[in-house]
Each structure stands twice: as C-alpha cells, then as structure tokens.
Automatic annotation (TrEMBL):
It comes from the Bacteria. SUPFAM superfamilies: GAF domain-like. Residues 125-280 form the GAF domain. Keywords: Coiled coil. Residues 283-310 form a coiled coil. This is GAF domain-containing protein. Gene3D superfamilies: 3.30.450.40, PucR C-terminal helix-turn-helix domain (1.10.10.2840). It comes from Pantoea rodasii.
C-alpha cells in the first residue's frame, strides 16, 4: 500500500520542489464522512472527498477515497507562510492522481467482471450458475458482504430466493411478489435501486409482512444495498441484490454500473441454462419414450408367449389346481388362487384369510383392477363388471413388474373359468326355481318328493322357509354377486338339509327335518349370520308340517313384508309379526286413512291432543288398569277417568265395548309403526 504514498509524493515533489510534503495514510473513511452531515467538504464526488485546513504554519489536505486508500498530506513552505503555498495547484494535482488511480481501480473491477462472466458462461446448470452469481457479485462489488439472487416464479407470481450469502438458511423462505419490497419494485420497473443507509432500507418496507418479520428476526439489516434487475433484452428473470452489512454510503454509480453489467451476464447465462435444460429434458423424454417402447414391445412379446403357454397348460391340465401348479412351475414362483366360489389353491401363509378381503366390498372398491400389497403378499384382483370375482396371490418379494404383468394376463385367463361357474349357477338356479314352482303348484307328492330328492333336498316331516333380502345390491355384476352370496349360504348351511334358490333380490331357503329343533337351529344360525352374508332383512315362517310347504313360503314372504312396512332391518319370525301381518297387503295410504278415521281428533298436533293420545296409549298398554296407568303417568285416577271420557267423546268410541276397544287399539298400534 506504500506505493500510493511514494507515487503521490514523487509527483508533488517534482512539480513543487521548494515545498515539503509529508504524506500518511488516513484512518478516516469516506462512508463515515458522508453520514456525518456536520463536516464541511472542500470537494466531494462519488469517489473521494477533499478537506483542506490550516494548522500552525502548514496546510493539511485530507484525500478521503472510497475505493483506494485515504491519504493525509502535510504541506509546508520554506518561509512557513501559507500564502507561498499554491494550494489550488496542489489540490488539482491530488485530484488528477486520485482520478488516475480510480480509473485503474475501475479497470481492475471490470476485469473482475470479465473473469466472473467466464465462470458464468462455463456453467450449464442452474445450480452451478447460482453459486457463480454469489461468488462473482461478492468479488465484483467492493464492500459487499451479502448477496440475494431471486428468480421470478411465473406459476406462483413470486420472486423466490435461489442463492443467498450472508444470511441464515431461513432467508430462502422470504419470497416476495412483484411491486412488494425492494426486489419487487426493481423487477416491476426494470430499474436499479440504491440505498445507502439503514433508515432508507427500513423505510422501503411500507407494508407489514409476517414472513419478512420472521426471517429478519434472526438476520441482520443491511446498511447499504444495490438491487438491479437480471435483465436479458426485454425479459426479466429476477433480481440481484448486494448488501453491505457493516458500512453505510459505500455504493455509488460505479457500483450500480458494475452490478448491472454483471447482472446482464447472469441473465444471459440463466437463459442459456434454461435452454440447455429444455434440450436435456426433451432428449430425456425422447430417450424415455424409446425405452418405454422397447419395454412395451418386450412385454408384448412376453405376454404373447405367456398367453400361448397358458393355452397349452390349460389343455394339458384339466383342473384349476393343476393349472395353477403348472403356472407356478413355469414362472418359478409360488402362485396362490382364491375365487368367489370359495375355491382356494396355494401354499402361501394365511391364504384362507383372503376370503374376508375377497368379500369385503370396500376392499373391492379400493383395489379396482390393479394389484395391491397387503402384509407380505401381492394381491391381484380378478374383476368382472367392477366386482372382484377372485384373487391371484404371490409373495410381495416376487412381485416384479414383469410378474405383475404376467399375473394380469393370468387373471384375464382365469376369469373365463369363474364366469363358467356363474353361468352354471344361473342354470342351476333357474332349474331349482322351476322345480320349487312345480312343488308349490302341485303340492308334496311322490313325484315332487322324488324330484327334490334328486336335487339334494330330502322331504321329511317338518318344514320351514326363510326369505332373505339383499343389502345394497350392486348395479353391475349381479350374477357375480348372487354367486358370492349363494356360496356363502351353502358354506353356512353345509350340514343342514336345505334347498336354496333366488329370485330377483331375494333368496329362498327351505329346511326340512324330522326334528323341529334341527330346523330351528338352522333358522337361528341364519339369524346370527345373515348380515355377514350380505342381507339386511330376513323373514322366517313357522315350522309346520311339510305338506303345507306353500304356506311356509307365504308366511316367510309375509314376515319380510312386515319388516319392509316397518322400514327396519333385521330378522323376524312369523309368530312375532302380530296384527301387522293382516295389513301387509294394504297400501300405506289406506292404512293412513284408517288411522285418520279413528284417531283424527287426537293427532291434530295440539298440546292437548298429544296428552290425550299419550294417555290412551298408556291405558291400552297397561291392559286398561286405572291404577297402573295413573301411576305410570304420575296423575290422579280421577284425572285419568276425565281424560278417557274426553278420548271417548272425541273419537265417538266406547272403550268398554270390545269392538270399539279393538279398533282403537289397532289404530294406535299402526300409528306407532307409521
């Protein structure tokens, strides 16, 4: 640094040989003097300040510079007289020297830009460029010790920090919108902003920002900053901000020019990187499509080979079990199989538990037609009309992409066999329905008994009938649904002498035995399990002599109709239907009219009518016992007598007459069910 003293002293001594010059480095700082408004300067510009003063018999000249070392000159004449010192000439000589040095400094700074531009141009990825932006900005602009590089995010309309130096990592959370904050204003106006004091910087934040407050809580506020647009011709990619955290008034027009020049090179590098990324992405997409096409072609060839192999193995193996075993050997993994008919093949752990998954509607909806993982198994549903009809299962560790595709082809192949079972059920059900219609029409005789026996149903002394109504029948895949329910019923009643068939949405089940208890046991089992099988209502007949088989069906249908009238789910036996069985064939409006004809004075909605109706129901419910009724209502017996007389007066009924009592009791009962 002594070169500055030596050079200036040599210049001045050469021009003014009779004067004595003593030159030292000055501790004064340009930015300190600028911020101290009380000082008076003899000269000031963006680069240096000149201060002249007389001390004793000499003149002191302070040359306080921004970018080169500050100097203090002590000038003395031989006669120790001020007047003999040509101060204006010396002042001009010092300024010329400072300008020359500043030009050298500027040249050096622009050389640094050139070097940093080369680094920018050498990077093709945005990640590398962002690091060069930070390094280059700090090296290019004197007194800068922090950098913020923001890029505009078009999708979210924000300026997002992509490179930060001098702040903590949470500064990356501080994104701003256009026109917001200093960066937003620069981005919107495309013009630089320079602020040389902390007060000016704080004043620029005109609106409160919770994010900014949170970020700046643990980060410093700068004393000076320059923010310039990262501009490529007419397109602005974002903003570049340099900051001085420790010093004020250190940035000038030169710093702005330097940073703008550097930012334009950043924009160019960013554009090139963007184009490079687009080309790489395009290349990767083409390459990916090519690889996908090759994989699909290979998969197609494999599928075709596998399909031909399945046809060959199906011809050679007559049963599904042997076919699945042959497939397992072919693809060299253990394959298990379970279908809606309850057939299971395979050695995988817990294969029997998949029956619950198979018949779980929610699982079927979630799995769709694609496979899914459960525990350590990969399960591929076999779908028919949006209904799972079976599963193919392998160990999760064996379920490579290739194996999954093969299992999909295998599933398609096996569905055909399952649908054969569905078709067989349809034919069997039609045959059973026809047989039972003949039995109901002709009654129990030697011919019908023989026919039922040939179809696995032995006619014995007693018979009972159950009619079950399906819950939430699916719109599609009805036949598959029926196969599922039918097989569950067969499994449930495997030890019972039962005859099962269905019609529309109802299943009819007949049970015959010489023991009343055995038939009752069958009914009890159905009552416990009918919901799990897939029904929501079940009507059971009385157990009656087999000769009255038609009556058993009528009783079961009547019982189910009572449940439907009640609009309730559950199971009900014929002997518990009460008087309601007499009304199942009546329309709702007809029943409402009957209730209205009898009880209209008590159902007008008034408070008095409600009290009378409650009293009447309690009176009927307690078997016309005055004491029990009055006690239950917590009223005096005389009050009860008065209310009963009022009821009789309004309804024109005499509750002491058995006919009137029956009518009004039935009306109250039907009202409670409506």
């Amino acid at each position: 640094m002594s070169e500055y003293i030596n050079e200036l002293e040599k210049i001045l001594t050469l021009k003014h040989p009779r004067l004595t010059f003593s030159i030292l480095y000055s501790p004064k700082r340009y930015d300190d003097l600028i911020s101290d408004n009380s000082d008076k300067y003899d000269f000031r510009n963006d680069h240096f300040i000149i201060i002249l003063c007389k001390v004793d018999s000499c003149i002191i000249l302070d040359a306080i510079s921004l970018y080169i070392p500050s100097l203090t000159l002590k000038i003395e004449a031989p006669d120790r007289s001020y007047d003999s010192i040509p101060i204006e000439t010396i002042d001009a000589d010092v300024k010329n020297y400072l300008y020359a040095k500043i030009l050298q400094q500027q040249s050096w700074l622009f050389q640094r830009i050139s070097e940093n531009t080369w680094h920018l141009a050498s990077g093709l990825s945005h990640q590398i460029i962002t690091q060069h932006v930070v390094d280059g900005a700090l090296k290019t602009i004197p007194f800068s010790d922090a950098v913020i590089f923001r890029i505009y995010d078009e999708e979210h309309n924000i300026l997002r920090p992509v490179a930060v130096s001098g702040f903590k990592d949470n500064y990356y959370d501080y994104s701003v919108s256009p026109q917001e904050s200093i960066s937003g204003k620069v981005f919107e106006s495309r013009k630089p902003i320079i602020l040389n004091s902390k007060d000016d910087i704080l004043a620029s934040f005109r609106r409160y920002s919770a994010i900014r407050a949170s970020v700046m809580e643990n980060n410093p506020i700068a004393n000076s900053l320059i923010c310039v647009p990262v501009l490529d011709q007419h397109y602005c990619y974002g903003t570049l901000t340099i900051l001085s955290l420790d010093r004020s008034s250190v940035f000038n027009s030169l710093a702005v020019s330097l940073l703008e020049t550097f930012a334009s090179q950043v924009a160019l590098a960013w554009r090139n990187a963007k184009q490079y990324d687009e080309k790489v992405e395009s290349f990767n997409q083409v390459n990916s499509l090519r690889q996908q096409l090759e994989m699909q072609n290979e998969m197609l060839r494999s599928n075709l080979d596998f399909h031909n192999e399945m046809i060959r193995l199906s011809i050679k193996n007559n049963t599904i079990e042997s076919f699945i075993k042959a497939i397992s050997n072919k693809i060299n993994i253990e394959v298990s199989y379970i279908d809606i008919s309850g057939e299971m093949y395979g050695k995988l752990n817990n294969i029997h538990k998949l029956w619950v998954s198979l018949t779980d509607i929610k699982i079927n909806e979630m799995s769709g037609e694609t496979g899914y993982i459960r525990d350590d198994l990969y399960i591929k549903p076999m779908m028919q009309n949006q209904q799972a009809v079976g599963f193919v299962v392998v160990n999760k560790s064996d379920a490579s992409d290739y194996i999954r595709v093969m299992l999909s082809r295998l599933s398609d192949f096996l569905i055909m066999d399952i649908m054969k079972k569905v078709s067989s059920l349809l034919i069997e059900n039609k045959r059973k329905s026809s047989i039972m219609n003949k039995v109901l029409s002709n009654g129990i005789n030697e011919d019908t008994t023989s026919t039922l026996s040939e179809n696995g149903f032995m006619i014995q002394e007693w018979i009972g009938c159950a009619v079950l109504s399906l819950a939430n029948p699916t719109k599609g895949g009805e036949d598959v649904k029926m196969l599922d329910v039918h097989n569950k019923l067969k499994s449930l009643l495997v030890r019972s002498n039962a005859f099962i068939y269905y019609d529309e949405k109802k299943f009819m089940i007949y049970s015959s035995d010489n023991s009343l208890d055995k038939i009752n046991s069958t009914f009890t089992k159905l009552e416990k399990e009918f919901v799990n099988v897939g029904f929501h209502q079940a009507g059971f007949s009385n157990i009656i002599p087999t000769i009255r088989i038609k009556q058993s069906l009528e009783q079961a249908l009547t019982t189910l109709a009572v449940l439907e009238k009640r609009n309730k789910e559950g199971a009900l036996r014929f002997n518990n239907t009460g008087i309601e069985r007499l009304f199942v064939n009546h329309e709702k409006e007809e029943i409402k009219q009957f209730i209205h004809d009898v009880l209209s004075p008590l159902v007008d909605g008034s408070e008095k009518s409600q009290v009378l109706l409650k009293t009447l129901n309690a009176y009927i419910g307690h078997g016309c016992s005055v004491n029990n009724t009055a006690k239950s209502l917590d009223i005096h017996a005389n009050t009860l007598y008065q209310r009963i007389r009022k009821v009789e007066s309004l309804t024109k009924m005499d509750l002491s007459r058995s006919e009137d009592f029956l009518i009004i009791s039935v009306a109250c009962h039907m009202l409670s069910l409506s």
